[in-house]
TrEMBL record:
Membrane-spanning residues: none
SUPFAM superfamilies registered for this protein in UniProt: Dimeric alpha+beta barrel
Keywords: Iron, Metal-binding, Oxidoreductase, Peroxidase
Name assigned to this protein: Dyp-type peroxidase
Originating species: Streptomyces sanglieri
Keyword set includes Aminoacyl-tRNA synthetase: no
GO molecular function annotation: peroxidase activity
A Pfam match: DyP_N
InterPro entries in alphabetical order: Dimeric_a/b-barrel, DyP_N, Dyp_peroxidase
Taxonomic lineage of the native organism: Bacteria, Bacillati, Actinomycetota, Actinomycetes, Kitasatosporales
Amino acid sequence: MADSASQAEEQVLELDDIQGTLLRLRPTPFTGAYFLLRIDDPDDGRQMLARLVPHVASATQWWDPPHHAWLSVALSYSGLRALGVPQESLDSFPDAFREGMAARAERLGDTGDSSPEHWDAPLGSADAHVAISVFAPDTAAMESLLETARETLRDLPGVSVIYRLDASALPSKRTHLGFVDGIGEPDIEGSGVASLAHRMGGGDYGYLPGFGPTIKAGEFLLGYVNEMGWTTPMPQPDVLSRNGTYVAFRKLHLRVAEFRRYLKDNASSPEEEELLAAKMVGRWRSGAPLVLAPEHDDLDLAADPHRVNDFTYHEQDPAGLRCPLGAHLRRMNPRDALADSLVDVKLHRALRRGTPYGPMLPEGELEDDGAERGIVFLFIGADLVRQYEFLKSQWANDGDFVGLGNEKDPIMGSNDGTGTFTIPKRPVRRRLQQAAPLRRDQGRRVPLHARHPRSEVDCRA
């Protein structure tokens, strides 16, 4: 338990022992890939991690990483076990991590097409022991780092690559649904930069208004004081957890053609289609927020890093007349909208890293071409239940907290086509039949324990 004096002082983070991807945004453009590895021999597994350590980009190396590319590593519960971590230590991890999300799918709304039996093998299985992400600014740097990664596996038959997913920035620099992404990340105390704001126009990272209050590092990293004034319980020994966190890995297939048809079916003009898309998300595709640009897109606003995120709901749009109460953006970060309730929004924030995969569907195409396309989401936080699982079960799949009953998030909720989406309007609100699922969870959504592995290889039986 931290005393009031220590809480008042800004915590100093051990940035060289923290993986950079936890505290830094990935520069754009980029090309990258995710890999899953299986460990059949603990000695080989530990040797592989030892070889990888010098190539992992820490928070202090992020702007000049090894090989001019970014490599990150995460371990699953079954991976720790495959490395030979003692059972006593394994038992000290929280239930949500030990069980994995396949076992917790129902409470998260992962049913129907998104249930675990439909996930891509080996996602959702106990075979995924190590997750590696590799990103670079160009193909040459990417291949150089991949060759280094291959060298780490040379003469280690007890470690094998069982899955690869290429995931790179689209030519549009937006998501498959056409939206600018990565704008609203929280400001973490002691992170070494003033804000994890979206890098606009290639400029430097700096403080941007509107990101809400600075949040204690213990909400996102183990070993530090959180918003409740204490340190989240850590798995033992401390070397397994300090400066680490938990990551929920989600691979989402996006039904882009269905999204476009839904807009066309519920709007009478291209302009109305764009407005409906903005109402569902909470921002225009450019990134301009509806609260500040309620009727028309504002490209100047979207391009201004000092204004694009500087808004509130309770003060500027309490009834949701500009940004609907059930819009995706407003659900995932209610900001001050719950100021009159007992809910402390700061306790339910999570870091998010999104990466598109698959080819773009040609502009204007309304029929699915059968290609696999979507987005990989990494949800990062120190408490899987209070952060990630709460976001999924309560704010995405339940509308009670904003007075919408059983309405779900129009973009990432577990919709089945029978629900509704309400758009407040005067004199009469507009209520649309909810679209069939615009996304399908088809990946291993298993929590991964991620830390900079500087000492990870020393934690052995």
